[in-house]
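4.2 Preliminary Data

To establish feasibility before requesting continued support, the project team ran the inverse folding procedure on a target of 323 residues. The structure was first converted into the token representation described in Section 3, and no sequence information of any kind was made available to the design step. The complete token record follows.
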């Protein structure tokens, strides 16, 4: 069985939330093999944990300045792992900024094809078929086997299931001789996360508000519903531009792409740019007083009514159910 390499993003020794999904995707296509970059002596993602998530092999690349170089160590590690593994049918990366950058650079280096923001993969006799959403999510398209090795970034939350647990056998690869030039981080200024809500991109439930809220003060209604459900808070571009909330809450083509199990759109008309960032959610509930709003075209359940009446009733119902 051919190997499928998976780039593991991590922080403080913990794998990113997307790791299990990426390894599950790899298991559909071949034998999952994790690729980890770390500084010598630093706390790396444990091979045992990656084995539990489905990695049969863990390729580890150590580099003294791994934490200060942007993307280039990951590209070098993936390339070295591909050479060490021999038979590699695909490389899977997350759809994060770093993941997409590393994937695209690797595809150029290895003469392969980079397929970005993929929502489904299938192994066929002729190669790997991927499914993507094009033109802001207006169309779903499939692409057959690409020439050369396939490098695929997976939209988080789009692939269900888990890979079977595996050995997680460590194999070291040497990237010290790689001379690729890249940007270097000279300083970090980390801002503490003030909110205790789930991260927007990885949340199981997302409640988003739009222009229909009318003001920053009334946007609190969205936050109250999110807190009742234990959800993350999102917003449409119109709400962000109007100053109702911070830009990092924006869901859509020019914001964050989410694929939660439940997405609740409150006072959002559903412009195509917003739908591009949320329509792959498993279940979509829309609340809007305009029955002709485009958001209802992608909603599984729609409530036509005044959100200032509907949402408080929903909050009370959720709290009553919890108690």
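Position-by-position output of the design step:
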């Amino acid at each position: 069985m051919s190997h499928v390499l998976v780039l593991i993003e991590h922080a403080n020794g913990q794998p990113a939330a997307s790791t299990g999904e990426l390894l599950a995707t790899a298991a559909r296509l071949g034998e999952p093999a994790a690729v980890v970059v770390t500084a010598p002596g630093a706390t790396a993602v444990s091979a045992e944990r990656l084995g539990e998530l489905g990695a049969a092999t863990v390729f580890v690349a150590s580099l003294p300045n791994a934490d200060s170089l942007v993307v280039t160590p990951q590209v070098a590690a993936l390339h070295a792992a591909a050479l060490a593994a021999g038979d590699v049918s695909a490389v899977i990366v997350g759809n994060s900024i770093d993941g997409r950058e590393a994937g695209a650079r690797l595809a150029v280096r290895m003469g392969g094809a980079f397929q970005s923001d993929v929502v489904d993969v299938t192994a066929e006799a002729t190669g790997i078929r991927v499914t993507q959403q094009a033109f802001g999510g207006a169309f779903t398209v499939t692409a057959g086997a690409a020439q050369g090795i396939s490098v695929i970034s997976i939209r988080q939350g789009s692939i269900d299931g888990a890979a079977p647990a595996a050995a997680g056998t460590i194999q070291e690869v040497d990237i010290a001789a790689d001379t690729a030039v890249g940007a270097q981080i000279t300083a970090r200024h980390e801002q503490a996360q003030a909110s205790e809500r789930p991260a927007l991109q990885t949340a199981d439930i997302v409640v988003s508000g739009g222009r229909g809220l009318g003001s920053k003060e009334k946007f609190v209604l969205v936050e109250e519903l999110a807190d009742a459900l234990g959800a993350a808070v999102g917003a449409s571009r119109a709400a962000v531009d109007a100053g109702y909330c911070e830009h990092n809450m924006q869901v859509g083509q020019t914001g964050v792409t989410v694929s939660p199990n439940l997405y609740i759109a409150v006072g959002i008309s559903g412009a195509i740019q917003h739908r591009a960032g949320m329509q792959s959610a498993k279940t979509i509930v829309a609340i809007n007083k305009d029955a002709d709003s485009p958001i209802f075209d992608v909603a599984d359940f729609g409530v036509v009514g005044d959100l200032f009446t509907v949402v408080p009733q929903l909050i009370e119902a959720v709290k009553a159910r919890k108690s």
